[in-house]
Amino acid sequence: MKELSQMSNKELIELVEEFKxxxxxxxxxxxxxxxxxxxxxxxxxxxxxxxxxxxxLLTIEECIILANNKxxxxxLKIDGSSSEDDFFIQQPFDLNRNKGYVARxxxxxxxxxxxxxxxxxxxxxxxxxxxxxxxKD
Length: 137
Prior knowledge:
Shape: globular
Radius of gyration: 15 Å
Strand order of the largest sheet: 5-4-3-6
Order of helices and strands: HEEHHHEHEEEE
């Protein structure tokens, strides 16, 4: 596959379309699969009972790797091209976790933001869930 910087607009669109109807994307470098689409939007961490499944959410380190990879960031819409695909992530700070704060990843308008101090009752129409799982050969 060509590097993204060498792809035409048509080729980029075809790449995104290829993964549009797939549920999971294999991330070889991390040996995980990541859900392509963000789901359960406009529901809070508390409503989704994500405390029980926090280990299935992406870590801050995984988000950084994905956001800095042109191919993965394009397919997962974390390249700043969508303002409707924010998702909860694992809380990277014990202090915040102990206070009940949750973390999320936002990417829009050409910027990426990690929020780590939100309450578990927060929700909005663009915020949802994107799970990961260990890749099985």
